[in-house]
Amino acid sequence: MNRRLFWKLCGPLALGTLALVWVISFLGAETEQQMSFIAERHQQTLKQWGATAERLHAAGDEAALADWLEALQAREETWAAVVRSDIRPLAGSELSAQFREGFRLGRHVEWKIHLYFADNPIMDLTFADGRTHFLITLPQRMRPGGHLPEVKLTLKVALPLAVLVLLSVVIYRHLMHPLRQLELATRAFSEGNLGVRVRALLGNRNDELTALAATFDRMAERTGELILTQRRLIADLSHELRTPLTRIDMALSCVEEGIETQHFLPRIRRECRLMRALVEDTLTLAWLENEKPSLDQDSLDLTDLLDSVIDDARYEYPDHRLDAELPAQAAIHGSSQRALAQAVENVIRNACHYTPAGGRVRVALSTEAHGYRLDVDDQGPGVPDDQLERIFQPFYRTAQARDDKPDGHGLGLALARRQLEAVGGWMRAENRPAGGLRMTLWFPATRSVAEA
Prior knowledge:
The protein is an alpha+beta fold. The chain is 54% helix and 13% strand.
């Protein structure tokens, strides 16, 4: 499974953690380095003290130098002194120029101070003669690194916390944007906006959340289609039931008024049968459209089924000529005999109904790759080209159909197509050049369990 969202989150988190550790280490070392030097103003103060001590020493005023040192020690609460460094090499050894130049009794004011030593260092300001030194223990107020604990706390706690909070906000927004869109879409859908979709709002993003949005869109589209189909079926069914109910109501009124009942009872019975058939066909159609059911997995001979349906049609329409062109055998596996029989019967009855008396209906079954093709040709008036697809809509009837078959309700072809689709087949209509309509049905020879 491609875990795009996992890698999109894991990558920044891993890289961000490594970068954060490096930044904290770098800033900590750099900050400690910068804080290890005496401030510039304190360096100048130490140099001024050294210059004062050198001036008093050069003047030979020992008493003034002693008083000045005593006052400085008292004021800064530290130790200070002026000393000489007379280094005498022994055993004929000599002092190198590098040693003489760099020799000190204490630290130079510009050198780095070790912040972790408990005692303050002794600073050395060498006089011009190179042998006399002004030494002073660095006063506490001049010691660098006084804010090092606070800086370390900031770098080790405040900075990581701020970065993690920022990263959490970015991740939260990255995750919540599609979830928020899904929430708004779900709310809008629940309030009746069946056309709401989410995937297009997420742009080029491609991860598990966009897959969830695409799944929501498919669900919304399917659910919207079901709701609209149910509304349309209910509205059409209500419209179709209104006429027979009106006739029954009129017949009952006549019966109540004492008019001969024998004339109206057959009428009421016929209207009741019509309504029962209408409701049953509508429920079957709704079941096929909404539930997408898995029908029975039967094995049958399509030739035998067609022979039976054609015999019934010949009996019902004795003044029609039904020509059958069928192979000796047409085996079908994993299909539904009931659904196929109803679909074929609806198509052949429809062809016989619109073919005038004495006309010819041709039923031809041929073998095709992976299935069978059935052509049913009639000699009826045909259908306008712009309505060839609409005749498969529930309750739709052409003007010619309403005139020729006023008792029809326009569910036969719609139901036949849905039944064929339920077993993996298809159905279409076309006008014949010689006149009449051709209905073409295709049946799969074998329907797998996965397709079912």
